[in-house]
């Protein structure tokens, strides 16, 4: 009963925190233009820098938050990072230069440990046999927030202006974090576990690197996020090539959001299948499915074909995050689980940076369709390497059992 209550509280909190991370997307370039008279190239360049710096800094910070949560309690880290995010967004309403906004987005990256810590907290109190279902349910909150964040941000900016949008967003995150403060009761497992020697960060890294399957899972998180984000900066231009309409901005937003909708619908169901048949098997299926649905997007001739394929691609992606997290839950001791989940989140954050950068370079050199070719090939190769590592790991285990017998 307690675990179920904690899941509900964290679902709500993750929704609002994830929404806050994407609320700024619809008006980031317009907000930069209010600081002075700048060229379009300057605004576009700094929009990319300001958006990307949050994830680049979060790449380095996520494992540290995971480690602190393992040592001092994850609820404390949730409160610290939640209020930190609220403070950074609140201060954004007072900035008057690109440099100040860049600094606050950097600070936001430092405190972006809320969602991975929430995953670690719920994972630690979830039975291994239903980890996929529970973590898939939690992922629905994060995906929903990311899906509705740009819509809410755009509506707030149009209705109240930039300053009040930051005020309102900060207030909502403060309330969500306070909800966690009073609604979450952390279940600590020290008394129920064999006391284990505290490992250093180098030792934890060595464990991850020496476990081929665990390392492959981390690389998979980077590759999938890179492929997913590779086309996003070019999506509006691609939609513009498919049609001539006054509603291009709306349809580009719909094409962007429908992937999240497919993800939202499928993530819990994929998690349940992972619990039944093995999370590694579901991850492999989802990888192949994502490649198969991503490649045809290069050949579409209408916006609705693209929307359908983007929706199917979202369904494929929906099984990867909860099953990867559940796999880590099963393979990693609780004493270092938060830190390992932090490393996995770091690889995902890095993909948020490498994806748009790689997509921009490929599109600029070979055209937008080439982005679909390259990312599909990347997903196919990842599925091939993942399958090879999985088979090697399985043979090694069978050999160990045979030697013991």
From TrEMBL:
Keywords: Cell membrane, Membrane, Transmembrane, Transmembrane helix, Transport. It comes from the Bacteria. It is found in: Cell membrane. Residues 6-394 form the Major facilitator superfamily (MFS) profile domain. Pfam families: MFS_1 (PF07690). The chain crosses the membrane at residues 7-32, 44-65, 77-96, 102-122, 134-156, 162-184, 204-228, 248-270, 282-300, 306-328, 349-366, 372-390. One of its GO terms (molecular function) is transmembrane transporter activity. It is a multi-pass membrane protein. One of its GO terms (cellular component) is plasma membrane. Its main location: membrane. This is MFS transporter. It comes from Alkalicoccus halolimnae.
């Amino acid at each position: 009963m307690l675990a179920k209550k904690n899941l509900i509280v964290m679902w709500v909190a993750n929704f609002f925190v994830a929404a806050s991370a994407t609320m700024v997307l619809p008006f980031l370039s317009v907000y930069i233009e209010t600081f002075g008279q700048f060229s379009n190239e300057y605004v576009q360049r700094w929009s990319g820098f300001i958006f990307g710096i949050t994830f680049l800094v979060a790449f380095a910070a996520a494992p540290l938050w995971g480690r602190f949560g393992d040592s001092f309690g994850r609820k404390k880290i949730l409160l610290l990072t939640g209020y930190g995010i609220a403070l950074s967004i609140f201060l954004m309403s007072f900035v008057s230069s690109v440099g100040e906004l860049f600094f606050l987005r950097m600070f936001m990256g430092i405190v972006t440990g809320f969602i991975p810590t929430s995953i670690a907290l719920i994972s630690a109190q979830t039975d291994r046999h239903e980890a996929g279902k529970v973590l898939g349910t939690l992922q629905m909150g994060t995906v929903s927030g990311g899906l509705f964040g740009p819509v809410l941000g755009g509506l707030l900016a149009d209705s109240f202006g930039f300053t009040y949008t930051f005020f309102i967003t900060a207030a909502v995150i403060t309330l969500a974090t306070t909800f966690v403060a009073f609604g979450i009761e952390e279940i600590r497992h020290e008394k129920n576990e064999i006391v284990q020697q505290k490992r250093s960060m180098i030792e934890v890294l060595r464990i991850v690197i020496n476990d081929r399957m665990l390392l492959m899972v981390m690389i998979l998180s980077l590759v999938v996020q890179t492929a997913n984000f590779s086309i996003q900066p070019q999506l509006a231009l691609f939609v513009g090539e498919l049609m001539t309409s006054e509603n291009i901005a709306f349809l580009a937003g719909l094409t962007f959001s429908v992937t999240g909708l497919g993800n939202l619908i499928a993530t819990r169901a994929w998690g349940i299948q992972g619990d039944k048949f093995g999370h590694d098997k579901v991850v492999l299926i989802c990888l192949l499915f994502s490649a198969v649905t991503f490649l045809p997007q290069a050949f579409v001739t209408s916006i609705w074909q693209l929307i359908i394929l983007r929706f199917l691609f979202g369904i494929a992606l929906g099984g990867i995050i909860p099953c990867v997290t559940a796999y880590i839950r099963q393979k990693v001791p609780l004493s270092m689980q938060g830190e390992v989940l932090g490393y996995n989140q770091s690889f995902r954050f890095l993909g948020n940076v490498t994806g748009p950068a790689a997509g921009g370079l490929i599109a600029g050199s070979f055209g937008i369709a080439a982005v679909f070719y390259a990312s599909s090939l990347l997903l196919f190769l990842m599925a091939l390497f993942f399958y090879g590592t999985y088979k090697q790991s399985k043979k090694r285990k069978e050999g160990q059992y045979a030697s013991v017998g």
